[in-house]
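Re: [ENG-882] Designed sequences occasionally contain unexpected residues at chain ends

Forwarding the minimal case from QA. C-alpha cells:
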C-alpha cells in the first residue's frame, strides 16, 4: 500500500482525521490491528527515506557552494570590464556626433540647392513651353480642334502657375484669359445645341472642354439659359390666360389659386425629366445643375411671384379687391385708413404657402441625392416669394387681431333710469364674459396661423403681437369697469354716500338713513349687488382662460424648441461635415431616413442672428417661471384686483351709507327726561341704522349663494366655491365692523342714556357677527363692555381682572367720551 503524502503538507492537517480515514479505506477482511501495524511501518519507512534523501541533498549542496562563489566573482570582474568598454564607446560616439552634425548640415544645404536647381530647371522648361504654346495657340484655334485648344490653354495655365508673377509673361496671362473667353464662346453654340436637342455625346465633350479650362460656371449658365426660357413660358401662361382690364392687374384670384398647383405640377415634371437626362449626360454635375436651374427660375420670376401673391390675397376680401390692392399695399400705408388687414387675407396667404410647401416636399424627394447645402439653398429659393410677407408677419397679426378685437361687442355700461340699472349691469357683465372666450379663440387661431405660415420661425414676433393685443383688450375691459362703477353708484362722482347738504339731511333721528339712492328700491339695490358679484366670474374667467392659453403657448414653444433644434442644428452639422470634405459642393449627404426639411429650418439656417435670438427665447420658455405674455400676465392680475375692489365697494356701499353719520347722532348727547313715572331712559331695541346693516349682512349670504353655485359648475370644486363665498362674506362683515368702529371713535361726548342705547346697538351687531360665525373684534367687545357698565363703576372695572381683558386704548377712549376721570 502506497502512502499519499499530500495531506501532510496541508496547514490544516489533522492526524486523527487522517488515521480514521485510513482505517475506513482498509480491506474488509483485514483486521484493524494488522492494518494499523502495516500503516505505522510504511510511515516509518517513508520518513526514513525522506531523512536519507534530505541528508544526501544537503551534502551535495555544500559541495556546490565553493564553485558557485567562484562563478560569482568571475561574473563581477566581467561586468566591470564591460562597463569600461561601454564608457569608451560612448566617448567615441560623442566625438563622432559633433563632426557628423556638421556633415549632415552641409548635406542638407547641398540638397536644398539641388531642389532649387531642379525647380529652376522645371520652371525654365515651363517658361520655354509657355513661349512655344503662346506662339502656336493661334494655329490650334485655327484648326478648329476644340479639345486640343482646351488642352493647350490648360497647359498654358499650368506653365503660368509655375512661372509665377513674372513681368515678362504678364501679356501671356492676359492672352490666356482672352483665349479662354474665346474658347468659351466657341463652345456655347455647340453645348446649347447639344442640351436643346438631347445630344449626350456632344454635351459630354463640350462639358469636358469647359471643365478643362475651369469654366464650370459657364456650363451652369449655358444649361440654365437653355431651360429657363421654357420654364418662363410656363410662368407667363397665367398672364396670357388672364385679360388685363383698366382697373386691376388680375381679374380673378380664384384662377391663380387653381393655376398655381398646375404650374407646380408642370414644373416638377419638367425638372424630373431634366434630372433623368442629366444623370446620363452629366453624371458628375447633375446633382447641382438641376437645383441651380430651379434656383435661377425662382430668382427670375421672384418679383412677379410676389406681386401675384399680393393681388391674389387681396382679392379674397371685397374691400381690397375693389381697389385692386393687396396685403403689402395695406402694410405700406398706401390704402385708406379704414382698410384693415383681415384674417381672410392671411388665410389665403397660408393656402398659397401650403401649395408651395407641397411642391417643396416633392423637390426635396427629387433632389434627395444632392448635397444638403444645395438642397437648402434650393428650398430657400422655392419659399423666397413669401419672405417679404414673413418678415412683416408680426405687423400683419397685430393688424388682424386689433381689427377683430375692435369688432367684439365691449361697449361700456350706460346709466339708465330707475329700475333699469341692474339690467344694464347684467348685460354689460354678460358681454364682458362672452368676449373673453371670443378673444382667446382669436389668439389660439393666431398661434395656429403662425405655425402654418412660418413654421414657428416668427414665434418671437408672435409673442410680442399677442402681448400687445392682450394689453389692448384688457385696457378695454378696464374702461368698461369704470363705466360699471358709475352704474353701480360707487364712482367718485356718483357715490351713494353724500354730505348732508347734498342729500338734505335734517337733524331728526334717523335722518342719516336718507341718501341719494333712496329712489332706488331694495329689489334694484339687490339686482345691482347681484350684477356686481357676477363681475367676479369675469375676473375668474379671464384669469383661468389666460392661464390655460399661456400654458398651451408654452407647450407650443417647447415643441418648437425640439423640432427646430433638430432641424436647424442637424442641417448645420451636415453642411459643416460636407464642407470639411473639401468637395466644393459636389459632396453627397444622403437624406435617407431624415424627415422633410422644415420651412422654419430653411429660413433660420441662413440667418444665424435671428436663429440665436429665437432659440434664446425657446430656452427661456422651458423655465416654469417664464411668462409667454409678460405684460399681459401682470395686467390680468391688475384687472382681477380692480374687479375685487369694485365688487367690495358695491357690497360695502350700503353699509358705508347707513353708517355715514353715526358719530353725529343726537341721541349720544341726549339727557334723561324728567318724568313722574319710572320709564326706561333708552330704547331696548337697536336703532334703525344698525338693524339695517345687520339685515343687509344677514341677507348677503343668500346673494353670494348663486355665485358659489356658478363657480362650482365650472372647474372649481364645491368646497373651493363655498370657501370663495365665505371669504367675501367675511370681507364685507369685517369692512362693516371697521366702518362702525371708525364712526364710534368719532363720538366726542356720550351721556349715560346714549351709552346704554349704543350698548344695545353694539350688542345687536355682535349677535349678527356671531350668526355669521365671525369672531367679535376685541375693540368692539371693549366698546360694549365699557358702555354697558354704569359710569360710576367704569373706573373700578378697568382696575379689576376683567379690565385686563379689555383693549386699553379703546377703554381709555370710552372713559374720555363718558367724562370719567381715571386719575
Amino acid at each position: 500500500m502506497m502512502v499519499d503524502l499530500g495531506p501532510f503538507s496541508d496547514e490544516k492537517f489533522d492526524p486523527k482525521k487522517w488515521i480514521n480515514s485510513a482505517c475506513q479505506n482498509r480491506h474488509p477482511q483485514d483486521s484493524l490491528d494488522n492494518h494499523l501495524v502495516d500503516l505505522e511501518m510504511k510511515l516509518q519507512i517513508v520518513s526514513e527515506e525522506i531523512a536519507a534523501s534530505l541528508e544526501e541533498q544537503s551534502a551535495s549542496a555544500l559541495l556546490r557552494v565553493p564553485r558557485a562563489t567562484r562563478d560569482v566573482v568571475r561574473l563581477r570582474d566581467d561586468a566591470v570590464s564591460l562597463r569600461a568598454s561601454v564608457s569608451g564607446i560612448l566617448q567615441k560616439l560623442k566625438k563622432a556626433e559633433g563632426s557628423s552634425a556638421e556633415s549632415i548640415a552641409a548635406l542638407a544645404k547641398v540638397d536644398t540647392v539641388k531642389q532649387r536647381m531642379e525647380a529652376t530647371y522645371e520652371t525654365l522648361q515651363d517658361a520655354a513651353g509657355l513661349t512655344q504654346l503662346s506662339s502656336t495657340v493661334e494655329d490650334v484655334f485655327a484648326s478648329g480642334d476644340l479639345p486640343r485648344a482646351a488642352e493647350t490653354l490648360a497647359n498654358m495655365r499650368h506653365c503660368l502657375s509655375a512661372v509665377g508673377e513674372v513681368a515678362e509673361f504678364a501679356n501671356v496671362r492676359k492672352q490666356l484669359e482672352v483665349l479662354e473667353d474665346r474658347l468659351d464662346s466657341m463652345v456655347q453654340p455647340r453645348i446649347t445645341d447639344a442640351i436643346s436637342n438631347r445630344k449626350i455625346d456632344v454635351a459630354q465633350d463640350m462639358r469636358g472642354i469647359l471643365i478643362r479650362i475651369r469654366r464650370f460656371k459657364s456650363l451652369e449658365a449655358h444649361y440654365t439659359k437653355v431651360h429657363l426660357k421654357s420654364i418662363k413660358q410656363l410662368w407667363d401662361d397665367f398672364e396670357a390666360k388672364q385679360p388685363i382690364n383698366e382697373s386691376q392687374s388680375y381679374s380673378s384670384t380664384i384662377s391663380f389659386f387653381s393655376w398655381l398647383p398646375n404650374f407646380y405640377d408642370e414644373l416638377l415634371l419638367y425638372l424630373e425629366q431634366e434630372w433623368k437626362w442629366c444623370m446620363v449626360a452629366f453624371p458628375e454635375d447633375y446633382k447641382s445643375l438641376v437645383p441651380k436651374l430651379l434656383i435661377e427660375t425662382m430668382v427670375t420670376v421672384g418679383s412677379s411671384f410676389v406681386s401675384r401673391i399680393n393681388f391674389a390675397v387681396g382679392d379674397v376680401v371685397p374691400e381690397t379687391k375693389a381697389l385692386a390692392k393687396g396685403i403689402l399695399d395695406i402694410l405700406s400705408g398706401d390704402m385708406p385708413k379704414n382698410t384693415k388687414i383681415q384674417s381672410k387675407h392671411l388665410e389665403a396667404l397660408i393656402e398659397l404657402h401650403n401649395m408651395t410647401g407641397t411642391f417643396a416636399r416633392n423637390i426635396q424627394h427629387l433632389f434627395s441625392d444632392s448635397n444638403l447645402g444645395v438642397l437648402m439653398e434650393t428650398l430657400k429659393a422655392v419659399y423666397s416669394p413669401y419672405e417679404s410677407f414673413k418678415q412683416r408677419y408680426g405687423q400683419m397679426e397685430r393688424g388682424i387681431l386689433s381689427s377683430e378685437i375692435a369688432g367684439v361687442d365691449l361697449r361700456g355700461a350706460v346709466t339708465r333710469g330707475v329700475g333699469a340699472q341692474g339690467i344694464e349691469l347684467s348685460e354689460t357683465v354678460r358681454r364682458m364674459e362672452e368676449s373673453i372666450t371670443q378673444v382667446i379663440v382669436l389668439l389660439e387661431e393666431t398661434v395656429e396661423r403662425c405655425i402654418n405660415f412660418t413654421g414657428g420661425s416668427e414665434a418671437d414676433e408672435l409673442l410680442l403681437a399677442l402681448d400687445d393685443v392682450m394689453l389692448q383688450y384688457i385696457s378695454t375691459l378696464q374702461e368698461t369697469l369704470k363705466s360699471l362703477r358709475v352704474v353701480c353708484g360707487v364712482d367718485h362722482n356718483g357715490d351713494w354716500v353724500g354730505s348732508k347738504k347734498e342729500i338734505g339731511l335734517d337733524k331728526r333721528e334717523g335722518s342719516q338713513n336718507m341718501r341719494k339712492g333712496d329712489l332706488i328700491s331694495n329689489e334694484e339695490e339687490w339686482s345691482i349687488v347681484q350684477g356686481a358679484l357676477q363681475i367676479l366670474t369675469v375676473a375668474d374667467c379671464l384669469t383661468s382662460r389666460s392661464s390655460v392659453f399661456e400654458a398651451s403657448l408654452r407647450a407650443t414653444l417647447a415643441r418648437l424648441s425640439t423640432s427646430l433644434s433638430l432641424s436647424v442644428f442637424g442641417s448645420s452639422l451636415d453642411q459643416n461635415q460636407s464642407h470639411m470634405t473639401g468637395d466644393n459642393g459636389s459632396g453627397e449627404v444622403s437624406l435617407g431616413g431624415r424627415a422633410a426639411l422644415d420651412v422654419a429650418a430653411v429660413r433660420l439656417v441662413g440667418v444665424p442672428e435671428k436663429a440665436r435670438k429665437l432659440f434664446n427665447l425657446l430656452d427661456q420658455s422651458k423655465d416654469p417661471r417664464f411668462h409667454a405674455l409678460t405684460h399681459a400676465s401682470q395686467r390680468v392680475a391688475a384687472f382681477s384686483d380692480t374687479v375685487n375692489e369694485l365688487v367690495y365697494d358695491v357690497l360695502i356701499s350700503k353699509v358705508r351709507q347707513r353708517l355715514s353719520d353715526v358719530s353725529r347722532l343726537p341721541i349720544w348727547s341726549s339727557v334723561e327726561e324728567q318724568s313722574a313715572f319710572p320709564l326706561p331712559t333708552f330704547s331696548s331695541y337697536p336703532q334703525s341704522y344698525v338693524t339695517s346693516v345687520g339685515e343687509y349682512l344677514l341677507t348677503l349670504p343668500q346673494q353670494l349663494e348663486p355665485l358659489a353655485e356658478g363657480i362650482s359648475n365650472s372647474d372649481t370644486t364645491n368646497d373651493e366655491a363655498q370657501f370663495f363665498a365665505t371669504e367675501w362674506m367675511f370681507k364685507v362683515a369685517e369692512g362693516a365692523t371697521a366702518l362702525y368702529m371708525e364712526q364710534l371713535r368719532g363720538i366726542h361726548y356720550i351721556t349715560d342714556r346714549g351709552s346704554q342705547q349704543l350698548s344695545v346697538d353694539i350688542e345687536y351687531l355682535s349677535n349678527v357677527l356671531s350668526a355669521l360665525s365671525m369672531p367679535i373684534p376685541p375693540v368692539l367687545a371693549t366698546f360694549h363692555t365699557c358702555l354697558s357698565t354704569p359710569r360710576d363703576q367704569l373706573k373700578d372695572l378697568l382696575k379689576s381682572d376683567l379690565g385686563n381683558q379689555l383693549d386699553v386704548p379703546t377703554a381709555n377712549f370710552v372713559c374720555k367720551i363718558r367724562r370719567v376721570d381715571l386719575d
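QA comment: On inspection the terminal residues look reasonable. The chain has four domains: 7-173, 215-390, 415-493+522-580+591-634, 659-817. Proposing we downgrade this to a documentation issue.
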